[in-house]
Amino acid sequence: MKKLSILFLFAILAIACTKKKETKTTSNELTAAEKVDATIIKEIFDTALLNGKSHEWLRDLTTNVGGRLSGSPEAAMAVKWGEHVMKEAGLDSVWLQPAMVPHWIRGEKEVAYYISDGKKFDMAVCALGGSISTPRDGVMAEVIEVKSIKEAEALGAIAKGKIIFFNRPFDNTLINTFSAYGGSVDQRGSGAKTVGKFGALAVIVRSMTNNIDNYPHTGTMRYGDIPESEYIPAAAISTLAAENLSKSLKENPNLKVYLKQSSKNLPKEKSFNVIGEIRGSENPEKVIVVGGHLDSWDLGDGAHDDGTGIVQSLEVLHLFKTNKIKPKNTIRVVFFMDEEQGGSGSKAYAKNVKTTKEIHIGGVESDSGGFTPRGFTIDANSANTDLLKSWKKLLAPYGLHDINKGGSGADVGKLKSEGVTLVGYRPDSQRYFDYHHAATDTFDKVNKRELELGSASMASMIYLMDKYLYNNAPN
Questions:
Q1: Which residues are within 8 A (CB) of 119 and not within 5 positions of it... i.e. 6 or more apart?
Q2: 43 catalytically annotated
Q3: What total of structural domains would you count in the chain?
Q4: Reported confidence tier of residue 470, pLDDT bands at 50, 70, 90
Q5: Is residue 97 domain-shared with residue 117, that is, in the same domain?
Q6: Which member of 110, 339, 365, 452 is catalytic?
Q7: Is the pLDDT of residue 53 over 50?
Q8: Which residues are registered as beta bridge partners of 143?
Q9: Non-local CB neighbours of 109 within 8 Å, separated by 6+ positions
Q10: Domain that holds residue 459
Q11: How far apart are the C-alpha atoms of 312 and 458, rounded to whole Å?
């Protein structure tokens, strides 16, 4: 009798485990509606990989236009290029939206070196965007190395007549390289502003990259509201130059650095956001925007930053049209101008949205390079955040496992409000800062398949947002 009781107990446990396993399996199965979505998403990826246009668009932009500083002739060429490719893609409407943008020029090739024990050591250098020039003959002075803005603030009068060297590297223990960038970039942006008031002659900054190489990386610096009398020139040196300079300073604290650059700020120029859309079939007054920024720095060709983002954004609409997906809401692509030097284009766009009282229910931005897709970050209310997270089982088969709360992007982020769901496309970040703002950011660094997978990832997210999100948006 005891033996039968034990057997009966084991049988009950076995049935319970089986039911638990069945319940788990059932929870991962797709509903009928999700199966339809899965089929369409598969078609989107197939089309992108077999008949995508993003790679050739990028080749055309980077080869025939190249680097696109806002306010430059190349940026004006890029506007015409963007208008042409949007019209060629057969969008329902295409137009230009004006914006006044900064016009900073680099001028002649920069020069930097240091003298130690009577020997000259050249340094790879580039002016930072927005910086003033040095005097015509350059500046030469002793150097003070610091690791932070706080340390620079503590210099006070000691900084007078010196060149301040900001040398805080990326924290390479951080898996997300954007976090490492965020932990270092303040020295580039605020270094000159911090020590100019003490009478420093110039600032040189370690380039914002994980790599130890000989390519300087530019980027924006700002003087803020300090008087012009406190403006000092600011430049970036390569990480290899920074390592060598730091080592030499330990051996010879009194060595001198020479810097010469001829950069300057000109009056603002009129430029444009390039905009196109497919009108919604049910709610044309409600808009989901997708975009990246058309401008870039001038050292390279602006391939990863952000040529990939704009061609992927246009590819989203091409994939909708090719697969005969008729969106319920209007899907609008925007090539924003001037993300790099202040966001004039996105500010103009957001202002127009407010003035015209357009209803935006969502936005997706690509500005993290054209690498292998990893997922999305979501900036939305809790209900819509949970909704987007629920789509992971549809997107995970394509490597999109990371769908989490987070920021969206510098351009679409200006549309933030309670009823707008904003999304940032997030590819793998490990190689991005090898090329970011450097001469290495060229077309050959972009892998065709990775680029196309990103386009399809974004199109799939927007397909789901269009189908399900509008019901959660305010009227």
A1: none
A2: no
A3: 2
A4: low
A5: no
A6: 339
A7: yes
A8: 163
A9: none
A10: 32-104+267-472
A11: 8
